[in-house]
Amino acid sequence: MSPSNPAPVAVREEDALYQSIHGLRLRRPDLSASRVLTNPQRAATLILAAVLVAGLVLAPLVAGLILAASVTVLYAAMLLRNVAMFRHLTRPAVTVQISDSEARAIPDSALPTYTLMVAAYHEPEVIAATLAALDRLDYPRDRLDVKLLLEADDQATREAVRAARPGSHVEVVLVPPAEPRTKPKALNFGLRLARGEYVTIYDAEDRPEPLQLRRAVAAFAADDGRLACLQARLSYHNPTQNLLTSWFALEYLTWFTFTLPAVAGGRTPVPLGGTSMHIRRDVLEEVGAWDPFNVTEDCDLGVRLYRMGHRTAVLDSVTDEEANSDAINWLKQRSRWVKGYAQTWLVHMRNPLRLWRELGTRGFVGFNLSVGGATLTSVLNPALWILTAVWFLAKPTAVQSVFPDWVYYPSMLSMIVGNVLAYYSGFITLDRTGRSELLKAALLMPVYWGLMSFGALRAVLQLLISPFVWEKTVHGLDQVVAEPRA
């Protein structure tokens, strides 16, 4: 075939597929999500459930009081964390900044080979645009190692790639169909063919800014050697398509512009984004690459990097993505993310004392609040909203009994201050970034919080009945595809 229409690289060796699925589980079973709960975790869960049920039956008021106090402590801890995060909204974000001139100053001959992996499944509508976006990257083609990871039975996307006629630096890697059908399994499969010193991941709808790879190379070169991973900032090219995309864009704007740099600047694990994370290949292989059973593999990888002594920073470079404009599509994606966060928390908390030693006290607390606490509060929020409404409307004595003053006032303080901070954060973000077109979304943000909690409840159900199912996010629903940022 001609160089502009490369033949697929059909890596079908049983060992390659087996290692892609079971490599981490065999090497570090304690870090694999292939089991939702270990035997000790299952026993602890059953004992806790039995004690709670027995308490509610035999001494309901005492059990309710203990439960209310425990939930109050959780929300108070989350409030303290959110206050710390809020402080960063009023300060310049700490990111790795490489100017255009610094990025272009590196001679082409000095640039390392860079592996770009794109795992695409049922993406015939957007794959041509993806290839065009990658072609806009300012990086010598003879040093680009692009792997299009396509499922072998996804004929439509394979045909769309052939029609797009990618350059000779693009290899189509056919991933044999096997369970679990997840993105991290495909990435592990492609990693075995990678030639680059550095590796990055792009999603099928991504539009990275052209100098992103050069900025990453310059940032790694300027570091003292401890820097293992750079997370580029993510944004959306269709933020005003509808209210849902505006909510999503505001959430991402706050997270990647302020919150994530604050987390990266502290002594806590950094939950990576699923795309535009740039990592040294030797480190990636050292930590076991991706967990194919974890449906939010990026968060898990970020925690493993920190546990094994590696540093992550946020790169001041933007990749534009497509914000979900369809509510059902958004709900499936959100549920997958929350389910993966729950998987990550359960995996790393299998041995809390060991985790504490590896992360340190600040990292241990930060991990439990950012990953475990954020997940749990999303699930609990609807019940507490209903309970609050019932109290103010009817003031039942049962509620008053389990919320004495020493529980009631801290819980109300956490609710009021926490919600005000979260609400006000949206307006601070708009002011700091000049994105006034998202004002309506900021005003209506509490409605979005309700949708997020619905997604979290759905995630818990899925964790129980289908923990490894990867619900596909449909792309190409945007009405207008904007040009990527310069």
Please provide a brief summary of the model.
The protein has 486 residues and is α/β, with parallel strands linked by helices.
Structural topology:
Elements: H1 14-27, H2 39-58, H3 60-89, H4 100-104, E1 114-120, H5 127-135, E2 144-151, H6 155-164, E3 170-175, H7 183-191, E4 198-202, E5 207-208, H8 212-222, E6 227-236, H9 243-265, E7 277-280, H10 281-286, H11 297-307, E8 311-321, H12 327-348, H13 352-394, H14 397-402, H15 405-433, H16 439-443, H17 445-465
Parallel strand pairs: 1-2, 1-4, 2-3, 6-8
Antiparallel strand pairs: 4-7, 5-8, 6-7
Helix pairs in contact: 1-7, 2-3, 3-9, 3-13, 3-15, 9-15, 11-12, 12-13, 12-17, 13-17
The biggest sheet, with number of strands, parallel, antiparallel or mixed sense and barrel status, is: 8 strands, mixed
CATH topology: Spore Coat Polysaccharide Biosynthesis Protein SpsA, Chain A
Report the average pLDDT across residues: 91
Q: What is the topology, as strand order, of the major beta sheet?
A: 3-2-1-4-7-6-8-5
Radius of gyration, in Å, reads 23 Å
Distance between the termini: 34 Å
| The number of domains | 1
**Tell me, what's the shape?**
globular
